[in-house]
Write a structure and sequence with these properties.
Blueprint: E1 5-11, H1 18-26, E2 33-40, H2 46-50, E3 57-62, H3 67-77, E4 82-85, E5 91-92, H4 96-107, E6 111-121, E7 127-134, E8 154-157, H5 158-164, H6 175-186, E9 190-202, H7 218-221, H8 223-234, H9 238-297, H10 299-311, H11 313-322, H12 324-329
Parallel strand pairs: 1-2, 1-4, 2-3, 6-9
Antiparallel strand pairs: 4-8, 5-9, 6-7, 6-8
Helix pairs in contact: 5-6, 10-11
Length: 332
Protein backbone atom coordinates (compact mmCIF):
# COMPACT_ATOMS: atom_id res chain seq x y z
CA UNK A 1 0.00 0.00 0.00
CA UNK A 2 1.32 3.46 -0.92
CA UNK A 3 2.20 5.70 2.02
CA UNK A 4 -0.32 8.54 2.37
CA UNK A 5 1.47 10.83 4.83
CA UNK A 6 5.16 11.60 5.30
CA UNK A 7 5.97 13.25 8.64
CA UNK A 8 9.20 15.26 8.86
CA UNK A 9 10.86 15.59 12.27
CA UNK A 10 14.06 17.70 12.45
CA UNK A 11 16.01 17.34 15.70
CA UNK A 12 19.03 18.99 17.27
CA UNK A 13 20.43 18.10 20.71
CA UNK A 14 17.10 16.97 22.20
CA UNK A 15 17.86 13.42 23.36
CA UNK A 16 15.78 13.87 26.49
CA UNK A 17 12.63 14.91 24.57
CA UNK A 18 12.96 12.88 21.38
CA UNK A 19 11.67 9.53 22.75
CA UNK A 20 8.34 11.09 23.68
CA UNK A 21 7.98 12.67 20.22
CA UNK A 22 8.78 9.38 18.49
CA UNK A 23 6.32 7.52 20.71
CA UNK A 24 3.55 9.91 19.67
CA UNK A 25 4.03 9.09 16.00
CA UNK A 26 4.44 5.35 16.62
CA UNK A 27 1.06 5.32 18.39
CA UNK A 28 -0.91 7.03 15.60
CA UNK A 29 -4.19 5.32 14.77
CA UNK A 30 -3.75 6.25 11.12
CA UNK A 31 -1.57 3.44 9.69
CA UNK A 32 -0.26 4.80 6.40
CA UNK A 33 2.56 7.08 7.48
CA UNK A 34 6.33 7.36 7.20
CA UNK A 35 8.51 9.34 9.63
CA UNK A 36 11.71 11.06 8.49
CA UNK A 37 13.94 11.87 11.48
CA UNK A 38 16.56 14.42 10.40
CA UNK A 39 19.42 14.92 12.87
CA UNK A 40 20.77 18.39 12.11
CA UNK A 41 24.34 17.76 13.28
CA UNK A 42 23.40 17.34 16.94
CA UNK A 43 24.29 14.63 19.42
CA UNK A 44 23.76 11.12 18.09
CA UNK A 45 20.26 9.70 18.55
CA UNK A 46 20.36 6.61 16.32
CA UNK A 47 20.13 4.38 19.37
CA UNK A 48 16.90 6.06 20.44
CA UNK A 49 15.36 5.62 17.02
CA UNK A 50 16.41 1.98 16.76
CA UNK A 51 15.00 1.19 20.20
CA UNK A 52 11.47 1.53 18.81
CA UNK A 53 11.97 -1.23 16.20
CA UNK A 54 9.58 0.69 13.96
CA UNK A 55 10.11 0.01 10.22
CA UNK A 56 8.28 3.23 9.29
CA UNK A 57 11.01 5.29 11.04
CA UNK A 58 13.77 6.54 8.72
CA UNK A 59 16.79 8.17 10.33
CA UNK A 60 19.20 10.58 8.63
CA UNK A 61 22.16 12.35 10.21
CA UNK A 62 23.56 15.44 8.49
CA UNK A 63 26.04 18.27 9.25
CA UNK A 64 24.52 21.15 11.17
CA UNK A 65 22.95 23.60 8.71
CA UNK A 66 19.90 24.79 10.59
CA UNK A 67 16.25 23.82 10.85
CA UNK A 68 15.30 25.09 7.39
CA UNK A 69 17.96 22.97 5.69
CA UNK A 70 16.87 19.89 7.65
CA UNK A 71 13.24 20.43 6.66
CA UNK A 72 14.19 20.94 3.01
CA UNK A 73 16.18 17.72 3.05
CA UNK A 74 13.09 15.97 4.35
CA UNK A 75 10.91 17.55 1.64
CA UNK A 76 13.32 16.24 -1.01
CA UNK A 77 12.60 12.69 0.17
CA UNK A 78 8.80 12.93 0.16
CA UNK A 79 6.84 10.81 -2.31
CA UNK A 80 3.48 10.68 -0.52
CA UNK A 81 0.39 12.75 -1.26
CA UNK A 82 0.44 14.53 2.12
CA UNK A 83 3.16 16.02 4.32
CA UNK A 84 2.98 16.55 8.07
CA UNK A 85 5.46 17.74 10.69
CA UNK A 86 6.58 16.94 14.20
CA UNK A 87 8.74 18.89 16.68
CA UNK A 88 11.24 16.96 18.75
CA UNK A 89 10.01 18.49 22.05
CA UNK A 90 6.22 18.43 21.49
CA UNK A 91 3.44 15.87 21.46
CA UNK A 92 0.55 14.91 19.20
CA UNK A 93 -2.38 12.74 20.21
CA UNK A 94 -2.97 9.25 18.69
CA UNK A 95 -5.78 10.47 16.39
CA UNK A 96 -3.77 13.46 15.08
CA UNK A 97 -2.93 12.18 11.59
CA UNK A 98 -6.29 10.50 11.13
CA UNK A 99 -8.17 13.72 11.95
CA UNK A 100 -6.11 15.80 9.53
CA UNK A 101 -6.21 13.20 6.76
CA UNK A 102 -10.00 12.81 7.00
CA UNK A 103 -10.50 16.59 6.93
CA UNK A 104 -8.33 16.98 3.84
CA UNK A 105 -9.90 14.08 1.95
CA UNK A 106 -13.53 14.72 2.86
CA UNK A 107 -13.35 18.47 2.18
CA UNK A 108 -10.99 18.26 -0.79
CA UNK A 109 -8.47 20.61 0.85
CA UNK A 110 -4.76 20.90 0.20
CA UNK A 111 -3.96 22.65 3.49
CA UNK A 112 -5.59 21.78 6.83
CA UNK A 113 -4.70 22.40 10.46
CA UNK A 114 -6.00 21.44 13.90
CA UNK A 115 -5.85 23.04 17.35
CA UNK A 116 -3.13 22.51 19.93
CA UNK A 117 -2.67 23.06 23.62
CA UNK A 118 0.04 25.37 24.93
CA UNK A 119 1.63 24.06 28.12
CA UNK A 120 4.29 26.04 30.00
CA UNK A 121 6.66 24.04 32.22
CA UNK A 122 8.94 25.49 34.90
CA UNK A 123 12.50 24.31 35.59
CA UNK A 124 11.19 21.82 38.16
CA UNK A 125 8.91 20.13 35.64
CA UNK A 126 5.72 21.63 37.03
CA UNK A 127 2.95 22.90 34.74
CA UNK A 128 2.46 26.63 35.38
CA UNK A 129 0.08 27.29 32.47
CA UNK A 130 -2.12 25.06 30.31
CA UNK A 131 -4.49 26.45 27.67
CA UNK A 132 -5.63 26.10 24.06
CA UNK A 133 -3.09 27.88 21.84
CA UNK A 134 -5.00 27.93 18.54
CA UNK A 135 -8.77 27.72 18.37
CA UNK A 136 -9.94 30.15 15.69
CA UNK A 137 -10.50 29.97 11.97
CA UNK A 138 -7.53 31.54 10.18
CA UNK A 139 -7.76 33.46 6.93
CA UNK A 140 -4.74 34.34 4.78
CA UNK A 141 -5.23 38.00 5.78
CA UNK A 142 -4.75 37.07 9.43
CA UNK A 143 -1.27 35.75 8.61
CA UNK A 144 0.12 38.99 7.21
CA UNK A 145 2.05 39.85 10.36
CA UNK A 146 1.44 37.15 12.95
CA UNK A 147 1.47 33.35 12.91
CA UNK A 148 -1.73 31.81 14.28
CA UNK A 149 -1.08 28.20 13.23
CA UNK A 150 1.24 25.80 15.01
CA UNK A 151 3.65 24.14 12.57
CA UNK A 152 3.22 20.56 13.78
CA UNK A 153 -0.58 20.88 13.49
CA UNK A 154 -0.61 21.31 9.71
CA UNK A 155 -1.05 18.83 6.89
CA UNK A 156 -0.62 19.87 3.26
CA UNK A 157 -0.24 18.20 -0.10
CA UNK A 158 3.12 17.74 -1.76
CA UNK A 159 1.62 19.50 -4.76
CA UNK A 160 1.04 22.64 -2.68
CA UNK A 161 4.55 22.73 -1.19
CA UNK A 162 6.01 22.26 -4.67
CA UNK A 163 4.14 25.43 -5.68
CA UNK A 164 5.28 27.61 -2.78
CA UNK A 165 8.89 26.45 -2.69
CA UNK A 166 11.15 25.27 0.09
CA UNK A 167 11.84 26.65 3.56
CA UNK A 168 14.00 29.79 3.50
CA UNK A 169 17.44 28.67 4.68
CA UNK A 170 18.56 32.27 5.24
CA UNK A 171 16.18 32.65 8.17
CA UNK A 172 17.00 31.83 11.79
CA UNK A 173 13.62 32.75 13.29
CA UNK A 174 10.06 32.85 11.89
CA UNK A 175 10.95 29.83 9.72
CA UNK A 176 7.60 28.07 10.26
CA UNK A 177 5.64 31.32 9.92
CA UNK A 178 7.25 32.15 6.58
CA UNK A 179 6.40 28.74 5.14
CA UNK A 180 2.85 28.62 6.59
CA UNK A 181 1.91 32.06 5.25
CA UNK A 182 3.18 31.12 1.79
CA UNK A 183 1.05 27.97 1.90
CA UNK A 184 -1.94 30.04 3.03
CA UNK A 185 -1.54 32.58 0.22
CA UNK A 186 -1.90 29.74 -2.28
CA UNK A 187 -4.55 27.73 -0.43
CA UNK A 188 -6.67 29.13 2.39
CA UNK A 189 -6.10 26.97 5.50
CA UNK A 190 -8.99 24.72 6.48
CA UNK A 191 -9.55 24.66 10.24
CA UNK A 192 -10.29 21.36 11.95
CA UNK A 193 -11.98 22.22 15.24
CA UNK A 194 -10.28 19.55 17.30
CA UNK A 195 -7.28 19.67 19.63
CA UNK A 196 -4.82 17.00 18.48
CA UNK A 197 -1.51 18.06 20.01
CA UNK A 198 0.37 19.86 22.75
CA UNK A 199 3.01 22.55 22.33
CA UNK A 200 5.48 22.89 25.20
CA UNK A 201 7.36 25.97 26.31
CA UNK A 202 9.97 25.67 29.03
CA UNK A 203 10.41 28.56 31.44
CA UNK A 204 13.82 29.21 32.99
CA UNK A 205 12.18 30.19 36.28
CA UNK A 206 9.30 29.00 38.45
CA UNK A 207 7.48 32.31 38.36
CA UNK A 208 7.99 34.07 35.03
CA UNK A 209 5.85 32.47 32.34
CA UNK A 210 7.49 34.64 29.65
CA UNK A 211 11.09 33.68 30.43
CA UNK A 212 11.37 30.92 27.88
CA UNK A 213 14.42 28.81 27.13
CA UNK A 214 13.78 28.75 23.39
CA UNK A 215 15.02 30.20 20.13
CA UNK A 216 12.90 33.28 20.86
CA UNK A 217 15.79 34.35 23.10
CA UNK A 218 17.56 35.34 19.88
CA UNK A 219 15.29 38.38 19.72
CA UNK A 220 17.19 39.68 22.74
CA UNK A 221 20.65 38.18 22.26
CA UNK A 222 20.95 38.83 18.51
CA UNK A 223 18.37 41.37 17.36
CA UNK A 224 20.27 42.06 14.12
CA UNK A 225 20.06 38.42 13.07
CA UNK A 226 16.32 38.39 13.79
CA UNK A 227 15.95 41.65 11.88
CA UNK A 228 17.46 40.01 8.81
CA UNK A 229 14.89 37.21 9.10
CA UNK A 230 12.16 39.86 9.04
CA UNK A 231 13.67 41.29 5.87
CA UNK A 232 13.66 37.85 4.23
CA UNK A 233 10.06 37.36 5.37
CA UNK A 234 8.70 40.61 3.94
CA UNK A 235 10.76 40.68 0.76
CA UNK A 236 8.35 37.98 -0.45
CA UNK A 237 5.37 40.26 0.29
CA UNK A 238 6.65 43.88 0.24
CA UNK A 239 3.10 45.22 -0.09
CA UNK A 240 2.39 43.99 3.44
CA UNK A 241 5.36 45.94 4.75
CA UNK A 242 3.91 49.08 3.14
CA UNK A 243 0.57 48.21 4.75
CA UNK A 244 2.27 47.86 8.14
CA UNK A 245 3.90 51.27 7.70
CA UNK A 246 0.59 52.89 6.73
CA UNK A 247 -1.15 51.28 9.68
CA UNK A 248 1.55 52.48 12.06
CA UNK A 249 1.22 56.04 10.70
CA UNK A 250 -2.55 55.88 11.08
CA UNK A 251 -2.22 54.55 14.62
CA UNK A 252 0.27 57.31 15.48
CA UNK A 253 -2.05 59.95 14.01
CA UNK A 254 -5.01 58.62 15.99
CA UNK A 255 -2.91 58.55 19.13
CA UNK A 256 -1.86 62.17 18.57
CA UNK A 257 -5.48 63.20 18.00
CA UNK A 258 -6.54 61.47 21.20
CA UNK A 259 -3.72 63.26 23.02
CA UNK A 260 -4.92 66.65 21.72
CA UNK A 261 -8.49 65.74 22.60
CA UNK A 262 -7.41 64.78 26.10
CA UNK A 263 -5.53 68.05 26.49
CA UNK A 264 -8.61 69.95 25.30
CA UNK A 265 -10.73 67.99 27.74
CA UNK A 266 -8.32 68.86 30.54
CA UNK A 267 -8.52 72.56 29.57
CA UNK A 268 -12.31 72.33 29.46
CA UNK A 269 -12.38 70.59 32.84
CA UNK A 270 -10.11 73.31 34.23
CA UNK A 271 -12.52 75.95 32.97
CA UNK A 272 -15.43 74.04 34.47
CA UNK A 273 -13.58 73.80 37.77
CA UNK A 274 -13.00 77.59 37.78
CA UNK A 275 -16.64 78.18 36.90
CA UNK A 276 -17.69 75.84 39.70
CA UNK A 277 -15.47 77.67 42.20
CA UNK A 278 -16.92 81.00 41.10
CA UNK A 279 -20.43 79.59 41.49
CA UNK A 280 -19.55 78.30 44.96
CA UNK A 281 -18.23 81.74 45.94
CA UNK A 282 -21.37 83.39 44.64
CA UNK A 283 -23.49 80.88 46.53
CA UNK A 284 -21.61 81.54 49.76
CA UNK A 285 -22.01 85.29 49.24
CA UNK A 286 -25.71 84.82 48.48
CA UNK A 287 -26.29 82.63 51.55
CA UNK A 288 -24.45 85.07 53.77
CA UNK A 289 -26.42 88.11 52.68
CA UNK A 290 -29.71 86.27 52.26
CA UNK A 291 -29.73 84.92 55.83
CA UNK A 292 -28.41 88.21 57.16
CA UNK A 293 -31.33 90.02 55.58
CA UNK A 294 -33.79 87.47 56.96
CA UNK A 295 -32.19 87.84 60.37
CA UNK A 296 -32.33 91.62 60.26
CA UNK A 297 -35.88 91.66 58.91
CA UNK A 298 -37.13 89.55 61.80
CA UNK A 299 -38.27 92.35 64.19
CA UNK A 300 -37.35 90.91 67.65
CA UNK A 301 -33.77 90.20 66.62
CA UNK A 302 -33.53 93.51 64.83
CA UNK A 303 -34.63 95.40 67.98
CA UNK A 304 -32.20 93.46 70.15
CA UNK A 305 -29.37 94.31 67.76
CA UNK A 306 -30.46 97.95 67.74
CA UNK A 307 -30.53 97.98 71.55
CA UNK A 308 -27.05 96.49 71.67
CA UNK A 309 -25.86 99.15 69.27
CA UNK A 310 -27.41 102.03 71.29
CA UNK A 311 -27.17 100.81 74.94
CA UNK A 312 -24.40 98.31 74.91
CA UNK A 313 -24.46 94.58 75.60
CA UNK A 314 -24.55 94.88 79.40
CA UNK A 315 -27.42 97.34 79.49
CA UNK A 316 -29.36 95.36 76.90
CA UNK A 317 -29.10 92.16 78.94
CA UNK A 318 -30.31 93.98 82.05
CA UNK A 319 -33.14 95.46 80.06
CA UNK A 320 -34.18 92.04 78.71
CA UNK A 321 -34.12 90.51 82.20
CA UNK A 322 -36.16 93.26 83.69
CA UNK A 323 -38.69 93.01 80.91
CA UNK A 324 -38.57 89.24 80.67
CA UNK A 325 -42.24 88.51 80.91
CA UNK A 326 -43.18 91.35 78.70
CA UNK A 327 -40.34 90.56 76.29
CA UNK A 328 -41.62 87.07 75.71
CA UNK A 329 -45.08 88.34 74.94
CA UNK A 330 -44.08 91.47 73.15
CA UNK A 331 -44.94 91.69 69.51
CA UNK A 332 -42.59 94.16 68.06
Amino acid sequence: METQITVILPTYNRRNFLPSALKCIAEQTFPSWRLLIINDGGEEVADIVESFHEPRFEYYSRPHQGKSAALNFGLSLVQSKYIGYMDDDDEVYPEHLQVLYDAAEQNHKEFVFSDTRLRIIDNSGNIISDQIENSEDVTPEMLHFYNRINHKQILHTKTLSDKVGKYDERMRVLIDFDFIRRLAFHEAPFHVRKTTGCHFLFSKSNTNQNDFASISGLWVSNAALCGMSLIYLFEKTPEFLAMLYRNSLQAETELYQKKIELQNNKTYMHLLENELNNTKNELVFFKKHFFFRIFMSYSPFYKVCSSIHSRGIKATISYIISKKKNYRKTKF
